[in-house]
Every structure is written in C-alpha cells, then in structure tokens.
Amino acid sequence: MFEVIVWGASGMAGGELLRILSGHDGMTVVAAVSRRSPGKTVWHDHPHLRGCYPDVVYSSPEEALKLKSDLVFLALPHGGAWRIAVDYRERGIPVVDLSGDFRLKDPADYSRWYGLEHGAPEYLQEAVYGLPELHREDLVGASLTSGVGCNASCAILGLAPLASTGLVESVRMEMRVGSSEAGASPSKGSHHPYRTRTMRVFEPFRHRHLAEVIQEIGLPEEKLSMTMTAVEMVRGVQMLAQVFLTEPIKEAVLWKAYRKAIEGHPFWSLCPARPSHLRLPDPRFVLGSNSASVGFVLHEDGKRLLIVSALDNLMKGASGTAVQAANLMLGLDETTGLLTSPLYPA
C-alpha cells in the first residue's frame, strides 16, 4: 500500500479524496491536513465519512510536513499550493496538485488568467496536465501532476475529438454548473439563499478555465468563448457547445472521430444515437462517478453542431481525476478505487 497525505482535507475536494481513498486497494491515507481544524475529527466536516474514518483527526500543516509519504494530494486554493508542492518535490515526493497553480505551461498565461505572478515558474514545464484521457503516457511515473479545472475537463472531453479534425470555425460554450463548484466557503453569489432557484450568468465570455481548453485542444482563443451559468444543482457540470464548422460534413464523420478518440478510455463515453432523450448527456447520469459523457447533434445544414458533455465536478472534474492520475504515477491500474457506479436518481 502506498501511503498518501491529503492537504485541504476539510474542503469539498479534500473530502471527496478521502471518500475515494477509503476504498482504494493501493493507497492508504496517513494524514488528512487542515490548517483551520487540526485535532478535530474528520467526520465533523464530512459526516458521511464517519464510518470510514471514525477516529481520524486532522493534522496540522507543521505535523504533516514531518511525515513520510509516497505521494501527496494538494486540495488547496489557487495560489496557495505551489510552495508546498515545491517543498515536497525538493524532497523527491510526488505531488498531485488539484489547484490551478501548475495547469498552465506559460508563466505569462498564468499571470494573465489568474492575476498573479507564479512563484515557481520553473516547475510549470515539468508538471503534467492531469487529464489521463490526453496525457496517460506522460503521467506514468510523473513526479508533479496538475489538477484539472472542472469546467475545462468537461469542455476538453467534449471538444477534443472534433478539434483534432481541423474543421472548427468557432465554438460558443455555455457551462451549466452546480453550487459545489464554488467550494465550501459561501460568498454572496454562492450562498444558498441567494443562489437557489436561479439561472444566473456569472461569466459571459472568459472564465479562467478557458485557458486550459486553449492549451489542451489547440484551438486559438479567438475561436472560443465560455459562458458560465449557475443552475439548480449541487454537483455537476454540463457543457452546451454551439459549434460552427468550416465546411459541411456528414454525421458519420463525427461518429468516427469520437469513437476513435474515446476508445480505450474507461471513464470517457459517447452517448447513443437512440433513444433521443439519451443522446445528449445529463449530469444526473454520472453523479458520484468518475465518468464523463459526450453527445452531439448535427444540424441538417451539416455546418452547425451542438456538442453536449457532462461530468461530476467533484469527481471527474477534480478528485476522481486526481486519483486516476495518481494511480498512473504510482504504476497502479488507472481505474483502482474509481469503479463506483453513478447514483441515479439523485
């Protein structure tokens, strides 16, 4: 068993890591780290995990840094993870960082999209972007892996097969997102009394996760927009992408491109053509799982296309993909601990 440490364990992504790892056959948690709650039992923040961790208390950061481990997960806020990641890397301990600190390869891009100068730009090229569906081979034996943005993951898995065809003229994405995307600390926009029963557009064109989409699928920014809409869900992301193609194509071309891209990936699936109500994925069909589903409909003119993708933002959009990447880093089967079926109805 590989011994792992989870930083940021009191947050939503950290709690999801603990849930996954409680049933993992290859990793065991030796410390759950929380700066705000050292000494408190884990289940005070995650009551659903009381049976898994009845006596485990949070470690302080100072205590955690003294412990031996085989790999570390950092479920920390953006801008707050890189120092700890560098500390572990200098000691030869592999790191999976769920924050945005190592997702972008270019320090100038990081500064532009996150509004900060990166504190360790020399590590950006070393870090592997942690989406196994694009970087499986690079993740095997990697020492530093970035997390993935939940919206970026949904967009990339929906668009990457099409982007590779060279037929994309422009893409207008709308991301419909649940409240857990905002994290455990409420704000005026994410606090339940203000957010419930709403369909609020909180970003019209340029969410920072768009930077990952640009980097990973190779389409220029001028061809892409990303609108963010808060909807009545707790977990889940759904992308609706209105795509304009450079020339008319037949639907068979799309089926071939998507089937080829998805083949061999255990958590990436293509929706069936029929029945029609299952052709475009609903996030409810993947909640609680590490799965991402994609579907599409081509307009009769052959040049306009609707692509829809869906995933659970706390699983495939964060902690599930992080564990999948860690499995590959440690030489384990990438599906270990992640074969939980979706919850439905939810």
Question: How would you describe this structure in keywords?
Answer:
amino-acid biosynthesis; NADP+ binding; 21% strand; 27% helix; NAD binding; AGPR; Dihydrodipicolinate Reductase, domain 2; alpha/beta; 6-stranded parallel β-sheet; 2 domains; 10 helices
Describe the protein in words.
The protein has 346 residues and is α/β, with parallel strands linked by helices. The chain folds into two domains: 2-147 and 316-329, Rossmann fold (3-Layer(aba) Sandwich); 151-312, Dihydrodipicolinate Reductase, domain 2. It is built from ten helices and 13 strands. The protein has helices spanning 12-22, 61-64, 82-90, 107-114, 132-139, 150-163, 192-195, 210-217, 251-262, 315-329, and strands at 2-7, 27-33, 71-74, 95-97, 128-129, 144-146, 168-177, 200-203, 224-230, 237-245, 268-270, 292-298, 304-311. The strands form two sheets. A seven-stranded mixed beta sheet has the order 8-9-7-10-13-12-11. A six-stranded parallel beta sheet has the order 2-1-3-4-6-5, sandwiched between helices. Helix 1 (12-22) packs across helix 10 and helix 6 (150-163) runs parallel beside helix 8 (210-217). The relative contact order is 0.15. The active site is at residue 150.
